[in-house]
């Protein structure tokens, strides 16, 4: 497994991100729907894009492949409901064949919930749940002695291209294989903001650095404030395929 340092892809474009409303001056996510299907070479990334994104068969080419919800998506510790298959009218590459609404995770006596349930694929929900239960919650307990209660994030699924560009490679968000995380709220109502606390020499900064590093062992793309200005306020986490053999890890 190789770890590369070139940055690649997505930018947040959710509509529900903060725990409290974003403070003045914070970037407000602004989703741009796909405007065209015209393909051009993707310039940012590490790979020359294939004609279609390489993702597990269960999440690609949704149209016509499944009309019923999943029978089940069994993930230990996940609070979720299976959802109706997601398609995006007229754009065949967007969608999720095995969507779930992940509301949060349970670990021992603690429950951490998303600010609003996120729509993602069952496959991605497994990776995300593992990261939250096995990395985020334990590190918070270790650092603060207080459990994480709320995870503030984007919506997960969005039919758009990387960096909201009108052309180029499809974002992993368009396949339900990505999430943007902006903040955590502990059980004592204190907030940990990626934008405000990432670079600070505090327990909050240490916590964020630790869970970012651990994310790089679970996801194929982890982009944080050190990646570029687009990610100064959040972690972009996805499980997309990079490189011909899908072994590249992008960790920034
Ligand atoms: Zn993202």
UniProtKB/TrEMBL annotation:
Keyword Signal: yes
Region (Disordered): 43-67
Lineage, top ranks: Bacteria, Pseudomonadati, Pseudomonadota, Alphaproteobacteria, Hyphomicrobiales
InterPro entries (UniProt xref): Extensin-like_C
Comp. bias regions, Polar residues: 56-66
Organism for this UniProt entry: Roseibium marinum
Domain Extensin-like C-terminal: 90-244
Keywords, alphabetical: Signal
Signal peptide segment: 1-23
Stretches that traverse the bilayer: none
Name assigned to this protein: Extensin-like C-terminal domain-containing protein
Keyword Ligase: no
